[in-house]
Design a protein that fits this description.
This is sphingosine kinase. It is found in: Vacuole membrane. By secondary structure, this protein is α+β, with helices and mostly antiparallel strands. It is 25% helix and 30% strand. The chain has 3 domains: 95 residues, PH-domain like; 128 residues, 3-Layer(aba) Sandwich (Rossmann fold), CATH 3.40.50; 165 residues, Tumour Suppressor Smad4, CATH 2.60.200. Strand 2 and strand 3 form a beta hairpin. The radius of gyration is 25 Å and the shape is elongated. The structure holds adenosine-5'-triphosphate.
Length: 413
């Protein structure tokens, strides 16, 4: 990187680095230049997590990517590091702290996070991942955390339903995709879902599949590691994500990752008994099921995306749900129905007048994706964008398997 010679530094002072007095300059683009031992540069936005003072020393907490010596094409590991410089006076230290603080604060990074930790996800490594990667990096970045271990199935959903989200800049799941989906469902069941869903959600890969973490990190060219996920969260990277509405009988729930029926769903559910194998349980059970394929009778009704109008046969809207659900809370509702009526009710788009088509089974597998990766090693839908404006939501009727693809417009940050 070339030093912006034409640019005047925002702040420049002589400090002691490695025992030598040397000028260090902070430029408006957030680069910190030091002339000791040749020119050295730090990019605050990308490499600096935070800083602390210790007597006359300013300790700058950084994270750097090491080189992979064996495979130079591969991305290296993220490693925490510290750069120490000593100011020459109290006033100089005060000004350094003020300028560094102002720049870091201007980056819009989160300051307070609520963390769900599922110690039972994947190979039960979430606690170690939290202690080895999440906690140290968040501490360096001076982010306050409240940690909630999940104690049972649907615990995260329960907490998300009542959590005072205004107290936090984000909710992070150190888990697999299951906990993230519970959190989305808990939030969308709240009366204040419209505000609550604006709380940024994050996921650190610590489960079996980790499809969401892989899709989000891969879309910006990062490897799917806990450290890269934490760094993205610290740096405040956000992107909108669609939510699919699924109706099964009288039950409504929401999905952000994928929906499976047939082979993939069976592998996911029935392989639970091999959880002790970690992520290998999926591959192992998939082989077992592929050798003994089942057939599923039913039909899929859908609204084709542009370019896919030739698939299936024309049909009319097959759902029993009428158009335009009312997502607003009606104060006249009796208390007993209040929660159900006031939570997010699904798309408010008129479903009846869309260009419906149908494909009749039998099927082996139906797998609908919001994001490209179903798991860390499964790129099931390469063309699925992490940001989709239109996402298939589903109506799935138990008993008579009939999937209706509808269009949804809720977006989660
Ligand atoms: N303390 C607990 N004991 C047992 N099950 C739990 C506990 N806490 C959460 N769960 C359940 O564990 C399930 C799996 O969680 P999670 O998504 O973290 O991991 P995974 O299923 O291994 O990964 P993936 O969803 O990526 O395949 C969730 O359905 C959740 O309800």
């Amino acid at each position: 990187m070339d030093r912006p010679d034409c640019d005047k530094p925002v702040f420049s002072e002589r400090v002691i680095v490695d025992g030598t007095v040397t000028p260090v300059s902070l430029f408006s683009d957030g680069t910190l230049w030091c002339l000791s031992g040749g020119q050295r540069c730090l990019t605050l936005r990308k490499e600096v997590l935070g800083f602390v003072t210790d007597g006359p020393n300013i300790r700058i907490k950084t994270v750097i990517e090491t080189r992979d010596c064996c495979f130079p094409g591969n991305r290296g590991k993220l490693v925490r590091n510290e750069i120490v410089f000593q100011s020459l006076s109290e006033e100089s230290q005060r000004l350094w702290c003020q300028n560094l603080r102002e720049y870091i604060d201007s980056l819009g990074r989160p300051k307070k996070l609520f963390i769900f930790l599922n110690p039972f996800g994947g190979k039960k490594t979430a606690t170690n991942i939290f202690l080895d990667h999440v906690k140290p990096l968040l501490e360096d970045a001076e982010i306050q955390i409240t940690v909630q271990e999940t104690k049972y199935q649907l615990h995260a959903k329960e907490v998300a339903r009542t959590l005072d989200v205004s107290q936090y800049d984000g909710i992070v799941c150190v888990s697999g995709d299951g906990i993230l989906v519970e959190v989305v469902n808990g939030i969308l069941e709240r009366e204040d879902w419209e505000t609550a869903i604006k709380t940024p959600l994050g996921v650190i890969p610590a489960g079996t599949g980790n499809g969401m973490a892989k899709s989000l990190l891969d879309s910006v060219g990062n490897p799917c590691t806990p450290a890269h996920a934490v760094l993205s969260i610290i740096q405040g990277h956000k992107r909108p994500l669609d939510v699919a509405t699924i109706r099964q009988g009288e039950t409504t729930f929401f999905s952000v990752l994928m929906l499976a029926w047939g082979l993939v769903a069976d592998i996911d559910i029935e392989s639970e008994k091999y959880r002790w194998m970690g992520s290998a349980r999926i591959d192992f059970y998939a082989l077992t099921r592929i050798f003994r394929l089942r057939h599923y009778n039913g039909c899929v009704s859908f609204v084709p995306a542009p370019g896919f109008e030739g698939f299936g046969e024309p049909t009319s809207y097959p759902g029993k749900f009428t158009s335009k659900v009312d997502n607003k809370c009606d104060p006249s509702e009796v208390e007993a129905n209040k929660l159900q009526k006031c939570c997010y009710q699904g798309t408010d788009i008129n479903l009846e007048n869309l260009n419906w088509r149908v494909i009749n089974g039998p099927f082996i597998s139906i797998w609908l994706h919001n994001v490209p990766w179903g798991g860390e090693n499964t790129m099931a839908a390469p063309d699925a964008k992490v940001v989709l404006r239109w996402l298939p939501g589903l109506d799935y009727y138990q008993g008579l398997p009939k999937i209706t693809v509808v269009v949804n417009d809720v977006r989660v940050k």
